[in-house]
Amino acid sequence: MGYIIETLGNLMHQTAFFNLTWGNYVMVAVACVFLFLAIKKEYEPLLLVPIAFGMLLVNIYPDIMISPEEASNGVGGLLYYFYVLDEWAILPSLIFMGVGAMTDFGPLIANPKSFLLGASAQFGIFAAYLGAMAMGFSDKAAAAISIIGGADGPTSIFLAGKLGQTAIMGPIAVAAYSYMSLVPIIQPPIMKLLTTEKERKIKMEQLRPVSKLEKILFPIIVTIVVCLILPSTAPLVGALMLGNLFRESGVVRQLQDTASNALMYIVVILLGTSVGATTSAEAFLNMDTINIVVLGLVAFAFGTAAGVLFGKLMCKVTGGKVNPLIGSAGVSAVPMAARVSQKVGAEADPTNFLLMHAMGPNVAGVIGTAVAAGTFMAIFGVM
Q1: Please, what's the b/e burial string for 72-104 (b: 16 or more CB within 10 A of its CB; e: otherwise)?
Q2: Which residues, at least 6 apart from 164, have a Cβ–Cβ distance to it below 8 Å?
Q3: Which of 214, 16, 47, 191 lies closest to 121, judged by CA?
Q4: Nearest one of 47, 132, 121 to 301, comparing CA atoms
């Protein structure tokens, strides 16, 4: 009888109930909220479901993220090896390849002024950089945090790894991906606050047709120009443009299908769960994390506002031919931000169709955020 009681006692003490802290329970609750938003509200479930589940796993079983050096048998946890691919910038670059393979750069080519809207939305990055410096973060940490303002998870992870900020990579990545997922909630109030109903109803002229030759030359020219100026952007910009060349060349359909479907979804699973698994209670529930999340929200709001305000300026300069709402799509959450521009415009006038116009600033924002990351790397002498 004593043996049975002892065995049952050992089994009970092996359960997570005896090993979790209050912080773990808090993070489990947060993970459940994220899963609710992803499944019930459908807020970018492709991102939130794996992130939230990784968060759930690491706070119930922390050893799933243990490194080989800390493990008694010298073998790391499953999600630790996924996370190493983040640190090595492999997964962020593959994500960019998939984005390029799925994205039509035609609206940007047809309306090059979109580059200006995409660039203006990067203001949030530099606002967050100054804010992080003011909060006492080091210059490299501030640079890594600031990329959240571009609403670009892969670039945030890429820059944090390159600048050696692995200690705060988890909070940065979770903040970036969370804000990407919450674009439909965060952006509309800012867009409506800064525009009038008359401006939101502006209908833009149909974009000119873009030739196949233009679409083929675009990724090649952008790669040459950007990578000559900022060679450190080659892993991101190069992967983005390679994926787009797969799409537009028309001769490697199998590669495009693989990059935009099977490979993309595999990478999303690996990256999402590993990012979520960085949010153990010990690593996440501290003042630095709170500051990072707040700075990320401020940066994202500033970026959205800057894009809309520059859109208003372009509206006046062009005599009312540009709907300011498309400026908010300058953050690089593709294609969510462009869809939000369409949604807010359609609320003002159901016959208004802004999606393709908003895709120009949206894809320009992807390039702009990568360039901003490359600029920081150049400043700190990191390649």
Answers
A1: eeeebbbbbebbebbbebbbbbbbbbbbbbbbb
A2: 140
A3: 191
A4: 121
357 within 8 A of 204, measured Cβ to Cβ: yes
Cβ–Cβ < 8 Å for 201, 353 = no
* Helix-helix angle 139-146:287-317, to 10 degrees: 60
161: nearest Cα among 229, 101, 71, 232: 232
Report how far residue 355's alpha carbon sits from residue 333's, in angstroms, rounded to the nearest whole number. Answer: 14
Q: Each residue of 273-300: pLDDT tens digit?
A: 998 998 888 888 888 888 888 888 888 8
Q: 136, 204, 189, 198: which is closest to 297 by C-alpha?
A: 189
The full DSSP string for 260-305 is: IIIHHHHHHHHHHHHHHTT--HHHHSSHHHHHHHHHHHHHHHHHHH
Angle at CA of residue 373, ends 368 and 377, nearest 5°: 145
CA dihedral of 212, 213, 215, 216, whole degrees rounded to 10: 120
What pLDDT was estimated at residue 9?
61
Structure-block tokens of residue 116: 């200006």
What amino acid is encoded at 235 in this protein? P
pLDDT digits (tens, 9 = 90+) for 222-234: 999 999 999 999 9
pTM for this prediction: 0.89
